[in-house]
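From the methods appendix. Each design record in this collection lists the tokenized structure first, followed by the designed amino acid sequence. Records were kept in a plain field format so they could be parsed without special tools. The example shown here is representative of the layout used throughout.

RECORD:
FOLD TOKENS (342 positions):
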């Protein structure tokens, strides 16, 4: 009766602490279905913190290296799924970073199986959440940028979003590898994608790349300000926020200031500040409002911007009375710059 109830897609699991070692032994089976059943049972087990800890500290991870090169795509996919589950915990991420699995894992970015590629991106994105993980992935940035450049819009949306999210984590740590890989023009191709998730993540990467002066200059040279103005009016608050962050960064330099003034960015930023907000909206839009205020502050450093914004002092003064201390401080700084007389 017990055999009849056994799930044919899973391997039999031993009792207690013997379960994990036994399943790793079964991964050495010659038949792919047997390896797949053992992997499936391992994926079930590592939901338990004790089994996950045993897996990453028991010297078992090195056995997965050969499975990442398995001829069966289902085995490769399930192996990456197991690694993804391990990286959902910090101890698993650290163990993977110190293992020899990263090079073969990187190779699977070009796997023929879309499910395998998706799981690889999930693993990389999990690693990138740690500063040490983002640091380890920096050498991979040129390859990720190349994949983004070659990725058609109809490609799996989740794969695009995960790739961009990983690039965002890496670029916040160090934007130079992405900038050196034509990151700004490549990202410009994704800012107008249909998916709001893709637009949000693409704008987040661009915001990270626009922190260095070279990135600011490239955003201006590529004429992305008009695209960013469209994103400022997007229906997704996070898309708007990231676009405002790019504007905030580029108006620090003189070229960015005058380009944004010439293209009439100021009225768009002011309209975002003047929107009426419910309590929940206020919380969701806080960062957007602060980015807009900081962008206007930088624009007011130019005589033309200061002249425009002097007529908007009532709006800025209203924001200087905001309930949120950070918004108040940003608005007060803007007022000081707008009202400054040389």
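DESIGN:
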């Amino acid at each position: 009766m017990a055999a009849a109830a056994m799930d044919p897609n899973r391997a039999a699991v031993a009792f207690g602490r013997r379960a994990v070692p036994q399943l790793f032994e079964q991964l050495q089976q010659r038949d792919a279905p047997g390896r797949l059943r053992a992997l499936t049972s391992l994926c079930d087990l590592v939901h338990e913190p004790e089994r996950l800890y045993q897996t990453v500290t028991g010297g078992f991870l090195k056995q997965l290296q050969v499975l990442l090169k398995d001829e069966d795509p289902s085995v490769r996919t399930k192996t990456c799924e197991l690694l993804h589950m391990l990286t959902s915990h910090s101890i698993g991420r650290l163990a993977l970073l110190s293992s020899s699995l990263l090079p073969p894992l990187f190779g699977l970015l070009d796997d023929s199986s879309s499910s395998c590629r998706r799981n690889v991106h999930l693993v990389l994105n999990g690693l990138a959440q740690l500063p040490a993980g983002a640091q380890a992935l920096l050498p991979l940035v040129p390859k990720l940028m190349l994949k983004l450049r070659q990725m058609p819009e109809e490609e799996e949306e989740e794969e695009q979003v995960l790739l961009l999210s990983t690039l965002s984590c890496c670029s916040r740590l160090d934007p130079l590898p992405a900038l050196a890989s034509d990151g700004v023009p490549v990202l410009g191709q994704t800012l107008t994608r249909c998916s709001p998730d893709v637009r949000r993540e693409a704008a987040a990467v661009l915001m990270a790349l626009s922190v260095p002066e070279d990135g600011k200059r490239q955003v201006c040279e590529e004429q992305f300000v008009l695209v960013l103005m469209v994103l400022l009016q997007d229906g997704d608050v996070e898309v708007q926020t990231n676009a405002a962050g790019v504007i905030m960064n580029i108006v620090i330099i003189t070229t960015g200031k005058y380009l944004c003034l010439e293209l009439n960015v100021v009225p768009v930023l002011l309209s975002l500040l003047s929107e009426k907000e419910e309590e929940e909206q206020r919380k969701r839009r806080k960062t957007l409002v602060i980015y807009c205020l900081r962008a206007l502050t930088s624009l007011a450093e130019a005589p033309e911007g200061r002249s425009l914004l002097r007529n908007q002092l009532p709006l800025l003064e209203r924001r200087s009375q905001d309930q949120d201390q950070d918004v108040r401080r940003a608005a007060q700084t803007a007022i000081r710059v707008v009202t400054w007389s040389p």
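APPENDIX NOTE: The longest helix spans residues 279-299.
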